[in-house]
Structure formats: structure tokens, C-alpha cells
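Problem: given the chain below (105 residues), write out its structure.
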Amino acid sequence: MSELCPCGSGAEYHACCEPYISGAETAPTPGKLMRSRYTAYVKQQVDYLIASWHPDCHAAQWRDSITESFRTTRWLGLTIVAEQNGRDDNEGFVEFIAPLYRRGA
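Solution.
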């Protein structure tokens, strides 16, 4: 049974964000990185979330908080508003909307 990717692309998960989350491929564009990170939140893939943050963020220190948020957060969809490449290959910008419901907030 095929499963649509939570990122809203309309593609099947195995052909969309799963290769990035599994580490088989690197997201080639800022938009695909954003979609894969959204999907990682939906699918509770904390290792990918930490690995895909910029090193200056020291994301590993937030592991417990991220994991705890999985219990109380329901993601309601992702809309990519705008995507733009930066000056360098390792820079890009994504404007997005990702509504969520947080239980107990």
C-alpha cells in the first residue's frame, strides 16, 4: 500500500522525503530540505532533524525537547510560499506555513 508523503507534495513518501530522512540522499534544494524536515517532525524522526540543522545551532542539546514535542504536537499541513537560492550553494531561503495543534498549550 502506498503512502503519500506528509510534506504535501502529492508524491509517495518512499519517492519523496524518505530518501533524505533515511540518509540515502541529500536534499538538493532548500524547498526539499524544508519538506523533508516537516516530514521528519510528522514522522518523529529526531535524528534527521538534529542532523539537518546548521551545526552552529548545537541541535543535539534539544533532543529531549524535540522528542517530548512529538507527544503533544499534531502537524496540520505544509505550504511552501516561496523558495529562493542563496548566494552560495549551501545557502537558501524558504518561506512556509506549517500550522500545528499543540495539546496542553
